[in-house]
Amino acid sequence: MDRGVSLPLPTVSRESTPVGEFFTIRWQDGEVVMLDQRLLPTREVYRRYRDYRAVARAITRMVIRGAPAIGVAAAMGIALGARQLQRITDPAAFERLCQQFAATRPTAVNLFWAIERMRHAYAQVRACGRRAICDRLTQEALAIYEEDVAANRRMGQYGATLIPPGATVLTHCNAGALATAGYGTALGVIRAAWEQGKQIAVIVPETRPFLQGARLTAWELVKEGIPATLVTDSMVGYFMQKGKIDCVVVGTDRTAANGDVANKIGTYTTAVLAARHRVPFYVAAPTSSIDLLCPTGAQIPIEERAAREVTHILRQQIAPAGVRVANPAFDVTPHELVSAIITEEGIARAPFAQSLPLLVQKGKNNRQRREMAVTEQAERTDG
Ligand code: MRU
Q1: Which of 2, 36, 148, 253 is catalytic?
Q2: Dist. CA 67 → ligand 1 center (Å)
Q3: Which atom of ligand 1 is nearest to the CA of 284?
Q4: Each residue of 280-332: pLDDT tens digit?
Q5: Tally of domains in the chain
Q6: Residue 372 falls inside a structural domain
Q7: CB 180 near ligand 1, within 6 Å
Q8: What does DSSP say about strands 340-343 and 281-284: parallel, antiparallel, or unpaired?
Protein backbone atom coordinates (compact mmCIF):
# COMPACT_ATOMS: atom_id res chain seq x y z
CA MET A 1 0.00 0.00 0.00
CA ASP A 2 1.11 3.54 -0.59
CA ARG A 3 1.39 5.83 2.41
CA GLY A 4 0.52 9.51 2.20
CA VAL A 5 3.01 11.74 3.96
CA SER A 6 2.75 15.47 4.38
CA LEU A 7 5.57 17.97 4.01
CA PRO A 8 8.46 18.37 4.95
CA LEU A 9 9.91 16.93 1.77
CA PRO A 10 12.00 13.80 1.93
CA THR A 11 15.69 14.27 1.16
CA VAL A 12 17.00 12.99 -2.16
CA SER A 13 19.39 10.14 -2.64
CA ARG A 14 20.69 11.46 -5.94
CA GLU A 15 21.24 14.82 -7.53
CA SER A 16 18.08 16.08 -9.20
CA THR A 17 16.67 19.32 -10.49
CA PRO A 18 13.23 20.03 -9.09
CA VAL A 19 11.50 23.29 -9.86
CA GLY A 20 10.51 25.48 -6.94
CA GLU A 21 9.77 23.73 -3.71
CA PHE A 22 8.21 20.53 -4.93
CA PHE A 23 9.08 17.49 -6.95
CA THR A 24 6.98 15.14 -9.06
CA ILE A 25 8.72 11.83 -8.46
CA ARG A 26 11.90 10.55 -6.85
CA TRP A 27 13.68 7.32 -6.14
CA GLN A 28 14.61 7.39 -2.48
CA ASP A 29 16.15 4.63 -0.36
CA GLY A 30 14.73 1.89 -2.54
CA GLU A 31 11.24 3.42 -2.62
CA VAL A 32 9.37 5.57 -5.13
CA VAL A 33 8.05 8.88 -3.78
CA MET A 34 5.43 10.85 -5.71
CA LEU A 35 3.46 14.03 -5.22
CA ASP A 36 -0.22 13.04 -5.36
CA GLN A 37 -1.43 15.28 -8.20
CA ARG A 38 -5.09 14.42 -7.58
CA LEU A 39 -5.02 16.53 -4.43
CA LEU A 40 -3.44 19.65 -5.93
CA PRO A 41 -3.71 22.58 -5.65
CA THR A 42 -5.16 22.49 -2.14
CA ARG A 43 -3.05 19.72 -0.59
CA GLU A 44 0.60 18.81 -1.18
CA VAL A 45 0.86 15.17 -0.17
CA TYR A 46 3.80 12.91 -1.06
CA ARG A 47 3.19 9.17 -1.26
CA ARG A 48 5.83 6.49 -0.80
CA TYR A 49 5.59 3.25 -2.73
CA ARG A 50 7.34 -0.01 -1.88
CA ASP A 51 5.17 -2.23 -4.06
CA TYR A 52 5.43 -2.07 -7.86
CA ARG A 53 1.72 -2.93 -8.21
CA ALA A 54 0.84 0.22 -6.26
CA VAL A 55 3.07 2.27 -8.63
CA ALA A 56 1.17 0.83 -11.62
CA ARG A 57 -2.13 1.72 -9.91
CA ALA A 58 -0.84 5.23 -9.20
CA ILE A 59 -0.27 5.73 -12.93
CA THR A 60 -3.74 4.45 -13.87
CA ARG A 61 -5.42 6.53 -11.16
CA MET A 62 -3.55 9.75 -12.08
CA VAL A 63 -1.55 10.19 -8.88
CA ILE A 64 1.14 10.88 -11.47
CA ARG A 65 0.30 11.83 -15.05
CA GLY A 66 1.84 13.58 -18.05
CA ALA A 67 3.66 11.54 -20.70
CA PRO A 68 7.31 11.86 -19.55
CA ALA A 69 6.38 11.48 -15.86
CA ILE A 70 4.44 8.30 -16.65
CA GLY A 71 7.57 6.90 -18.37
CA VAL A 72 9.76 7.72 -15.36
CA ALA A 73 7.20 6.20 -12.94
CA ALA A 74 7.01 2.99 -14.97
CA ALA A 75 10.82 2.70 -15.08
CA MET A 76 11.07 3.22 -11.32
CA GLY A 77 8.17 0.80 -10.78
CA ILE A 78 9.96 -1.89 -12.79
CA ALA A 79 13.15 -1.30 -10.78
CA LEU A 80 11.06 -1.70 -7.63
CA GLY A 81 9.40 -4.85 -8.97
CA ALA A 82 12.78 -6.42 -9.74
CA ARG A 83 13.69 -6.08 -6.07
CA GLN A 84 10.39 -7.64 -4.98
CA LEU A 85 10.26 -10.59 -7.37
CA GLN A 86 12.41 -13.54 -6.33
CA ARG A 87 12.29 -15.06 -9.83
CA ILE A 88 13.43 -11.93 -11.64
CA THR A 89 16.26 -13.86 -13.33
CA ASP A 90 13.50 -15.62 -15.29
CA PRO A 91 12.86 -13.48 -18.42
CA ALA A 92 9.18 -14.50 -18.38
CA ALA A 93 8.77 -13.04 -14.87
CA PHE A 94 10.47 -9.82 -15.98
CA GLU A 95 8.24 -9.59 -19.04
CA ARG A 96 5.10 -10.03 -16.90
CA LEU A 97 6.35 -7.16 -14.75
CA CYS A 98 6.80 -4.96 -17.84
CA GLN A 99 3.36 -5.90 -19.13
CA GLN A 100 1.68 -4.69 -15.94
CA PHE A 101 3.09 -1.23 -16.59
CA ALA A 102 2.35 -1.35 -20.33
CA ALA A 103 -1.32 -1.85 -19.43
CA THR A 104 -1.62 1.31 -17.32
CA ARG A 105 -2.27 4.02 -19.95
CA PRO A 106 -2.30 3.52 -23.72
CA THR A 107 -1.64 6.89 -25.38
CA ALA A 108 1.63 8.29 -23.98
CA VAL A 109 4.41 6.61 -25.95
CA ASN A 110 6.99 7.64 -23.34
CA LEU A 111 5.58 4.78 -21.24
CA PHE A 112 6.45 2.18 -23.89
CA TRP A 113 9.74 3.93 -24.69
CA ALA A 114 10.78 3.73 -21.01
CA ILE A 115 9.71 0.07 -20.72
CA GLU A 116 11.74 -0.71 -23.85
CA ARG A 117 14.81 0.88 -22.26
CA MET A 118 14.27 -1.23 -19.13
CA ARG A 119 14.00 -4.37 -21.31
CA HIS A 120 17.27 -3.47 -22.99
CA ALA A 121 18.99 -2.89 -19.63
CA TYR A 122 17.64 -6.23 -18.35
CA ALA A 123 18.96 -8.07 -21.42
CA GLN A 124 22.46 -6.66 -20.78
CA VAL A 125 22.75 -8.27 -17.31
CA ARG A 126 20.13 -11.00 -17.14
CA ALA A 127 22.79 -13.74 -16.97
CA CYS A 128 24.67 -11.98 -14.13
CA GLY A 129 22.24 -12.78 -11.32
CA ARG A 130 19.62 -11.06 -9.22
CA ARG A 131 21.78 -8.39 -7.63
CA ALA A 132 23.22 -7.24 -10.97
CA ILE A 133 19.72 -7.09 -12.48
CA CYS A 134 18.37 -4.99 -9.60
CA ASP A 135 21.34 -2.60 -9.72
CA ARG A 136 21.22 -2.21 -13.50
CA LEU A 137 17.45 -1.57 -13.57
CA THR A 138 17.69 1.02 -10.80
CA GLN A 139 20.54 2.70 -12.66
CA GLU A 140 18.50 2.80 -15.88
CA ALA A 141 15.42 4.23 -14.14
CA LEU A 142 17.54 6.99 -12.61
CA ALA A 143 19.15 7.68 -15.98
CA ILE A 144 15.70 8.06 -17.58
CA TYR A 145 14.75 10.48 -14.79
CA GLU A 146 17.89 12.58 -15.07
CA GLU A 147 17.90 12.65 -18.87
CA ASP A 148 14.30 13.88 -18.83
CA VAL A 149 15.12 16.92 -16.70
CA ALA A 150 18.16 17.71 -18.86
CA ALA A 151 16.15 17.28 -22.09
CA ASN A 152 13.45 19.61 -20.82
CA ARG A 153 15.98 22.31 -20.04
CA ARG A 154 17.51 22.00 -23.52
CA MET A 155 14.05 22.02 -25.10
CA GLY A 156 13.28 25.16 -23.10
CA GLN A 157 16.31 26.92 -24.57
CA TYR A 158 15.35 26.01 -28.15
CA GLY A 159 11.68 26.81 -27.59
CA ALA A 160 12.30 30.18 -25.96
CA THR A 161 13.78 31.43 -29.26
CA LEU A 162 10.24 31.21 -30.69
CA ILE A 163 8.61 33.31 -27.96
CA PRO A 164 8.73 37.07 -28.58
CA PRO A 165 9.35 39.42 -25.62
CA GLY A 166 6.06 40.50 -24.04
CA ALA A 167 4.10 37.68 -25.73
CA THR A 168 0.91 36.20 -24.35
CA VAL A 169 1.24 32.43 -24.66
CA LEU A 170 -1.65 29.99 -24.50
CA THR A 171 -0.98 26.45 -23.31
CA HIS A 172 -3.31 23.50 -22.66
CA CYS A 173 -3.50 20.86 -19.96
CA ASN A 174 -0.34 20.57 -17.86
CA ALA A 175 2.96 19.98 -19.61
CA GLY A 176 4.96 21.35 -16.70
CA ALA A 177 7.32 20.07 -14.03
CA LEU A 178 4.41 17.96 -12.77
CA ALA A 179 4.10 16.17 -16.11
CA THR A 180 7.81 15.34 -16.27
CA ALA A 181 10.77 14.55 -14.03
CA GLY A 182 11.16 18.32 -13.69
CA TYR A 183 11.01 21.70 -15.49
CA GLY A 184 8.38 20.65 -18.05
CA THR A 185 8.06 20.54 -21.83
CA ALA A 186 5.58 23.23 -22.98
CA LEU A 187 5.83 24.89 -19.57
CA GLY A 188 9.61 24.43 -19.77
CA VAL A 189 9.59 26.59 -22.92
CA ILE A 190 7.47 29.18 -21.08
CA ARG A 191 9.78 28.97 -18.02
CA ALA A 192 12.88 29.44 -20.15
CA ALA A 193 11.40 32.50 -21.89
CA TRP A 194 10.46 33.92 -18.48
CA GLU A 195 13.93 33.20 -17.05
CA GLN A 196 15.40 35.08 -20.02
CA GLY A 197 13.44 38.15 -18.88
CA LYS A 198 10.96 38.18 -21.76
CA GLN A 199 8.06 39.50 -19.62
CA ILE A 200 5.55 37.04 -21.02
CA ALA A 201 2.05 36.21 -19.77
CA VAL A 202 0.26 32.87 -19.98
CA ILE A 203 -3.36 32.00 -20.67
CA VAL A 204 -4.32 28.73 -19.00
CA PRO A 205 -7.49 26.90 -20.11
CA GLU A 206 -8.89 24.86 -17.22
CA THR A 207 -8.79 21.62 -19.31
CA ARG A 208 -11.98 19.75 -18.57
CA PRO A 209 -12.68 17.11 -17.52
CA PHE A 210 -9.69 16.46 -15.24
CA LEU A 211 -8.77 20.15 -14.81
CA GLN A 212 -5.01 19.79 -15.26
CA GLY A 213 -4.88 23.44 -16.40
CA ALA A 214 -6.78 24.90 -13.44
CA ARG A 215 -5.36 22.60 -10.79
CA LEU A 216 -1.79 21.98 -11.98
CA THR A 217 -0.56 24.50 -14.57
CA ALA A 218 -2.07 27.44 -12.70
CA TRP A 219 -0.48 26.10 -9.49
CA GLU A 220 2.98 25.86 -11.06
CA LEU A 221 2.75 29.34 -12.61
CA VAL A 222 1.44 31.01 -9.46
CA LYS A 223 4.20 29.33 -7.42
CA GLU A 224 6.79 30.73 -9.78
CA GLY A 225 5.29 34.21 -10.14
CA ILE A 226 4.77 33.95 -13.91
CA PRO A 227 1.70 36.07 -14.82
CA ALA A 228 -1.13 33.66 -15.63
CA THR A 229 -4.83 34.03 -16.43
CA LEU A 230 -7.12 31.06 -15.95
CA VAL A 231 -9.95 30.73 -18.48
CA THR A 232 -12.49 28.03 -19.28
CA ASP A 233 -11.81 25.92 -22.36
CA SER A 234 -14.76 27.53 -24.15
CA MET A 235 -13.12 30.98 -23.94
CA VAL A 236 -10.14 30.16 -26.15
CA GLY A 237 -11.89 31.24 -29.39
CA TYR A 238 -12.95 34.53 -27.79
CA PHE A 239 -9.39 35.45 -26.83
CA MET A 240 -7.98 34.36 -30.21
CA GLN A 241 -10.58 36.51 -32.02
CA LYS A 242 -9.72 39.50 -29.85
CA GLY A 243 -6.05 39.14 -30.85
CA LYS A 244 -5.04 38.47 -27.24
CA ILE A 245 -2.91 35.39 -27.94
CA ASP A 246 0.48 35.61 -29.67
CA CYS A 247 1.32 31.92 -29.79
CA VAL A 248 0.27 28.51 -28.50
CA VAL A 249 2.68 26.03 -26.88
CA VAL A 250 1.41 22.58 -25.90
CA GLY A 251 2.92 19.24 -24.97
CA THR A 252 2.30 15.86 -26.56
CA ASP A 253 1.66 12.30 -25.49
CA ARG A 254 2.68 10.85 -28.81
CA THR A 255 3.76 12.49 -32.04
CA ALA A 256 3.53 10.31 -35.15
CA ALA A 257 6.23 10.08 -37.83
CA ASN A 258 4.35 12.53 -40.08
CA GLY A 259 4.07 15.15 -37.29
CA ASP A 260 0.46 14.46 -36.24
CA VAL A 261 0.26 15.26 -32.54
CA ALA A 262 -1.79 13.45 -29.87
CA ASN A 263 -2.31 15.60 -26.79
CA LYS A 264 -4.97 16.32 -24.16
CA ILE A 265 -8.51 16.53 -25.49
CA GLY A 266 -9.18 20.08 -26.66
CA THR A 267 -5.75 20.59 -28.22
CA TYR A 268 -7.15 20.02 -31.72
CA THR A 269 -9.85 22.66 -31.16
CA THR A 270 -7.15 25.12 -30.10
CA ALA A 271 -5.02 24.26 -33.16
CA VAL A 272 -7.95 24.89 -35.53
CA LEU A 273 -8.62 28.23 -33.84
CA ALA A 274 -4.93 29.13 -34.03
CA ALA A 275 -4.86 28.41 -37.77
CA ARG A 276 -8.04 30.49 -38.29
CA HIS A 277 -6.45 33.44 -36.48
CA ARG A 278 -2.90 32.94 -37.83
CA VAL A 279 -1.47 32.32 -34.38
CA PRO A 280 1.66 30.08 -34.37
CA PHE A 281 0.96 26.66 -32.87
CA TYR A 282 4.05 25.02 -31.32
CA VAL A 283 4.42 21.57 -29.81
CA ALA A 284 7.10 20.80 -27.22
CA ALA A 285 8.00 17.14 -27.75
CA PRO A 286 10.97 15.38 -26.18
CA THR A 287 12.27 12.77 -28.65
CA SER A 288 10.96 10.14 -26.18
CA SER A 289 7.43 11.16 -27.21
CA ILE A 290 8.07 10.88 -30.97
CA ASP A 291 6.90 7.52 -32.30
CA LEU A 292 8.51 6.95 -35.68
CA LEU A 293 6.89 3.51 -35.85
CA CYS A 294 3.48 5.18 -35.87
CA PRO A 295 3.04 6.51 -39.42
CA THR A 296 0.17 8.95 -38.74
CA GLY A 297 -2.08 10.10 -35.92
CA ALA A 298 -4.77 7.66 -37.06
CA GLN A 299 -2.76 4.78 -35.54
CA ILE A 300 -2.38 6.42 -32.10
CA PRO A 301 -4.54 4.64 -29.48
CA ILE A 302 -6.79 7.13 -27.69
CA GLU A 303 -7.53 6.39 -24.05
CA GLU A 304 -11.19 6.46 -23.05
CA ARG A 305 -11.50 7.32 -19.37
CA ALA A 306 -14.23 6.86 -16.79
CA ALA A 307 -17.60 8.60 -17.25
CA ARG A 308 -17.36 9.93 -13.72
CA GLU A 309 -14.68 12.43 -14.79
CA VAL A 310 -17.34 14.10 -16.96
CA THR A 311 -20.42 13.69 -14.79
CA HIS A 312 -18.62 15.05 -11.72
CA ILE A 313 -16.33 17.96 -10.91
CA LEU A 314 -14.17 16.63 -8.13
CA ARG A 315 -16.80 15.03 -5.87
CA GLN A 316 -19.72 17.16 -7.05
CA GLN A 317 -22.18 15.52 -9.42
CA ILE A 318 -23.08 17.91 -12.27
CA ALA A 319 -25.04 15.64 -14.64
CA PRO A 320 -28.08 13.43 -14.19
CA ALA A 321 -27.42 9.81 -13.24
CA GLY A 322 -27.84 7.54 -16.23
CA VAL A 323 -26.85 10.06 -18.93
CA ARG A 324 -24.67 8.58 -21.68
CA VAL A 325 -21.09 9.95 -21.55
CA ALA A 326 -18.09 10.00 -23.89
CA ASN A 327 -14.66 10.72 -22.42
CA PRO A 328 -11.79 10.45 -24.92
CA ALA A 329 -8.77 11.74 -22.99
CA PHE A 330 -6.77 12.85 -26.05
CA ASP A 331 -7.24 14.11 -29.59
CA VAL A 332 -4.98 14.28 -32.63
CA THR A 333 -3.92 17.55 -34.23
CA PRO A 334 -3.01 17.02 -37.91
CA HIS A 335 0.52 18.08 -38.79
CA GLU A 336 -0.69 20.77 -41.22
CA LEU A 337 -1.82 22.79 -38.19
CA VAL A 338 1.54 22.54 -36.41
CA SER A 339 3.97 25.44 -36.97
CA ALA A 340 6.97 23.73 -35.36
CA ILE A 341 7.86 20.84 -33.07
CA ILE A 342 10.39 21.74 -30.38
CA THR A 343 12.62 18.90 -29.19
CA GLU A 344 15.69 18.75 -26.95
CA GLU A 345 17.77 18.27 -30.11
CA GLY A 346 16.45 21.26 -32.04
CA ILE A 347 13.32 22.59 -33.72
CA ALA A 348 11.59 20.53 -36.41
CA ARG A 349 9.66 22.23 -39.22
CA ALA A 350 7.58 20.77 -42.02
CA PRO A 351 7.99 18.40 -43.73
CA PHE A 352 8.05 16.62 -40.36
CA ALA A 353 8.40 13.21 -42.00
CA GLN A 354 11.92 14.37 -42.89
CA SER A 355 12.86 16.61 -39.96
CA LEU A 356 11.68 14.39 -37.06
CA PRO A 357 13.78 11.27 -37.89
CA LEU A 358 16.91 13.45 -38.05
CA LEU A 359 16.30 14.85 -34.56
CA VAL A 360 15.39 11.44 -33.11
CA GLN A 361 18.63 9.99 -34.53
CA LYS A 362 20.61 12.95 -33.17
CA GLY A 363 19.10 12.21 -29.74
CA LYS A 364 20.13 8.54 -29.95
CA ASN A 365 23.68 9.47 -30.99
CA ASN A 366 23.98 11.99 -28.15
CA ARG A 367 22.74 9.43 -25.60
CA GLN A 368 25.23 6.86 -26.86
CA ARG A 369 28.03 9.40 -26.57
CA ARG A 370 26.99 10.24 -22.99
CA GLU A 371 26.81 6.55 -22.04
CA MET A 372 30.28 5.92 -23.49
CA ALA A 373 31.69 8.87 -21.57
CA VAL A 374 30.18 7.53 -18.32
CA THR A 375 31.57 4.02 -18.97
CA GLU A 376 35.05 5.40 -19.75
CA GLN A 377 34.95 7.54 -16.63
CA ALA A 378 33.93 4.51 -14.51
CA GLU A 379 36.71 2.40 -16.04
CA ARG A 380 39.27 5.13 -15.33
CA THR A 381 38.06 5.34 -11.70
CA ASP A 382 38.20 1.50 -11.32
CA GLY A 383 41.63 1.29 -12.94
O1 MRU B 1 -4.07 12.73 -19.00
P2 MRU B 1 -2.76 13.42 -18.70
O3 MRU B 1 -2.86 14.43 -17.61
O4 MRU B 1 -1.65 12.42 -18.47
O5 MRU B 1 -2.43 14.19 -20.04
C6 MRU B 1 -1.26 14.96 -20.11
C7 MRU B 1 -1.13 15.71 -21.37
O8 MRU B 1 -1.96 15.65 -22.25
C9 MRU B 1 0.13 16.50 -21.56
O10 MRU B 1 -0.10 17.62 -22.35
C11 MRU B 1 1.17 15.60 -22.25
O12 MRU B 1 1.34 14.40 -21.53
C13 MRU B 1 2.48 16.27 -22.39
S14 MRU B 1 3.23 16.44 -20.82
C15 MRU B 1 4.79 16.99 -20.93
Answers
A1: 253
A2: 5
A3: 15
A4: 999 999 999 999 999 999 999 999 999 999 999 989 999 999 999 999 999 99
A5: 2
A6: no
A7: yes
A8: parallel
